[in-house]
Amino acid sequence: MSPGEPRSRWPLAILTALLLICAWLALAVELRYPGYARGVPVSLLGYLLPPWLLASPALLAACKLGFLGAALLWVLRRALPWSAWAAALSFIALGSLYWENLPWFRHKYVVPALLLIGHALWSHAHLRRASARARAPAWAPTLYLLLIAQFYAQAGLAKLTLVGPSWGDGLSLQLWLEWLGDRERFLTRLLLSDRLYARAAQTLALALELLAPLMLLGRRARLLVGSALLGMHLAIHVTLRIDFLSQMAILAVFTYAPWERFTSPARRRTAPPVAPGPAAAAAATRRTCPLEHGL
Q1: Which of 58, 87, 127, 163 could form a disulfide with 70 if both were Cys (CB 3.0 to 4.6 A apart)?
Q2: Using an 8 Å Cβ cutoff, are 173 and 202 in contact?
Q3: CA gap 97, 42 in Å, rounded
Q4: Other C-beta atoms lying within 10 Å of the C-beta of residue 232
Q5: What is the pTM of this model?
Q6: CA 217-219-222 angle, 5° bins
Q7: pLDDT by 10s per residue, the chain, length 295
Q8: Could you tell me where the DSSP H helices lie in the chain?
C-alpha cells in the first residue's frame, strides 16, 4: 500500500464476515448418517480415504479445530498465506466429510469454499501491502462475484440440461410444497391454489439463476440481481422451510459491500501531465505560500 493510498476497513470486515459464516457452518457439521450405504464418492476425500476414516468423529473434530485456528490466524494476518490456505482446505475437508456421510447432497458448503479460495489468493496480495486496511486489488470483486454467479448459472443450466424447459411447469414445486411446505404461510397456500402461480414462481427462479452472471456488469446490476436472488432464497426458506440462511448471508455481504470505495483502480496508461503556464504556477505559489497562513 502506497503512503498516499486511502485506507479502508472493508476488506478485513468482508473477510471476517465470510469466516464467521464458514465457522457457523463448520460448527454445525455432524456425521448423522455414518452407517448408511455409500454410493459413488462426491469429493476427492471420498476417493482417497477409506470409509471408516470418512466416518471418524476424531477426523471431523481435527478439521473443525484446524479451520477455526487457521481462520483466527488469517484474521490477525499471521502466517500468511499459509493460514489462509489452511483455513480454506480444512473447510473443504469438512464439507467433504459431511457430504460423504449424507444419503443426499447439500450444496450450502460450495459457495463458501469457493470464496475462501478466492480470499486465499487475495492473501498473497496482502503480503505486498503494509496494512490490513489496504485497498482490495481490482480483480478481487470480479472474482468473488464470478464465483457466486457461476454457481447459480450452473444450477440453472443443469435444470435445463437434465430436465428441459418443462422443469418450470409448476408441478414439481407443488409436489414439494405438499410434502414440506408450511401451510400456515400465505405464499405456500397461494402456490398450491393454482398451478399457474407455481409455474410462474419456478420460471422466475430459473430465470434468476440463468441471469446471475449479470451481477458482473456493474453496481446497479449487482444490487438488482443480488437482491432478487436474496428474495428467491427467502421465499424458499419461508415456504419450504429449507435452511438457506448461510447462503443468504453470503449473498448479502458480497452484494451490498461497497466494492467501488475500496478497490484499487486498474492501472491505466495516460498521457503525461502538461506543465502549468507561468500565470497558473504563480497562482499556485501564492495559494501555498506559508507566510499567507501565518506560518
Answers
A1: 87
A2: yes
A3: 10
A4: 19
A5: 0.82
A6: 70
A7: 444 444 568 888 999 999 999 999 999 888 877 666 767 888 888 899 998 898 899 999 999 999 999 999 999 989 989 999 999 999 999 999 988 888 666 788 999 999 999 999 988 766 655 455 556 678 888 999 999 999 999 999 999 999 888 898 999 999 999 988 888 899 999 999 999 999 999 999 999 999 999 999 999 999 999 999 999 999 999 999 888 899 999 999 999 999 888 775 554 444 455 555 555 555 555 544 443 433 3
A8: 10-28, 44-48, 51-54, 57-75, 82-100, 110-126, 139-162, 171-180, 186-193, 195-210, 219-240, 245-256, 259-262, 278-288
What is residue 56's three-state secondary structure? coil
The number of residues making up the chain comes to 295
SS3 of residue 136 by DSSP: strand
The residue behind cell 489452511 is: 86
